[in-house]
Design goal:
Number of helices: 6
Distance between the termini: 69 Å
Strand order of the largest sheet: 5-6-3-10-13-8
CATH class of one domain: Alpha Beta
Order of helices and strands: EEEEEHEEEEEEHEEEEEEHEEHHH
Radius of gyration: 21 Å
Strand content: 35-45%
CATH architecture of one domain: 4-Layer Sandwich
Helix content: 10-25%
Number of strands: 19
């Protein structure tokens, strides 16, 4: 069985980060279309069907087609981009986060070979990492899980990088320990975590509390990565404030008045 390419990396920035991956000759890193930022001369870029992992080769063209088709189900592109160092000496390539937040480096070899992540979290990985889909097996989770229903699974023994919004915290759950999280705040978790959905108790809580109807409940043992600002929440607030000038009215009389003048409404 082929092992993943062993790459070195460094993460730059605070709120808007990018990851720089160092490639030895003939090493390859795969990335999502649109994540590329910059690279040294001597790195060759190739568009590949699927994720380029060794699993693509087991079933010939049909295996590649099924692998790529799974990516469509999680809202990703049919194709990925492979960047290979074809020159002499070490070369560097960088991938940028799509919005404010943090980049998380996942060493799959130290995480028992598998991590399950939100469907839009994957940024790049060493070649050989398999990027597939993970359906939640419980009926309640599938029906009510929202953002947590269909997730990506990252498998292999190399490095993978995922992106999350806002501040990111890592929690280690002991056997039987339970953590309740907003479904959109779950970034990733290891394979030993039991993921389920729990109804918020009390009719007043979900009618007037301003939160959703359900918690994501994660039961240990394993690791969980949690984000403070899911992109869906950020997009919802932007839509709220951009519609009919609702946000402008809450900015105060001076700022609101200046905004009206700039908009031609004063």
């Amino acid at each position: 069985m082929l092992s993943n390419h062993e790459v070195d990396y460094k993460i730059f920035g605070e709120e808007l980060q990018y990851v720089e991956v160092e490639l030895d000759p003939q090493e390859t890193v795969i990335g999502e279309p649109g994540g590329f930022m910059m690279m040294d001369d001597g790195i060759q870029m190739n568009t590949i069907f699927g994720d380029g992992s060794q699993n693509d080769n087991t079933g010939g063209f049909l295996g590649k087609l099924m692998s790529a088709g799974k990516r469509l189900l999680v809202g990703e592109n049919l194709f990925m981009t492979a960047f290979t160092n074809i020159g002499q000496g070490k070369k560097r390539i960088s991938f940028a986060a799509p919005y404010t937040g943090k980049i998380i480096a996942l060493d799959l070899e130290k995480l028992n070979g598998k991590v399950i992540a939100q469907k839009d979290a994957f940024l790049c990985a060493a070649k050989g990492v398999s990027v597939g889909i993970e359906f939640q097996k419980k009926l309640g989770t599938g029906i009510f899980g929202g953002e947590g229903f269909i997730m990506q699974k990252l498998e292999g023994d190399g490095l993978a990088f995922v992106h999350a919004g806002g501040y990111v915290t890592e929690r280690t759950l002991l056997v039987g320990e339970v953590l309740k999280i907003d479904t959109g705040c779950v970034v990733a978790y290891t394979a030993g975590i039991d993921f389920d959905i729990e109804l918020v108790k009390g009719i007043k809580n979900w009618m007037f509390g301003g939160e959703g109807l359900f918690f994501a409940t994660l039961r240990g043992p394993g690791k969980v990565w949690i984000q403070s600002l899911p992109i869906s929440r950020l997009a919802g607030r932007l839509m709220q404030y951009s519609s009919s000038g609702a946000g402008r009215k809450e900015e105060g009389s001076i700022l609101g008045g200046l905004g009206d003048l700039f908009d031609g409404r004063g």
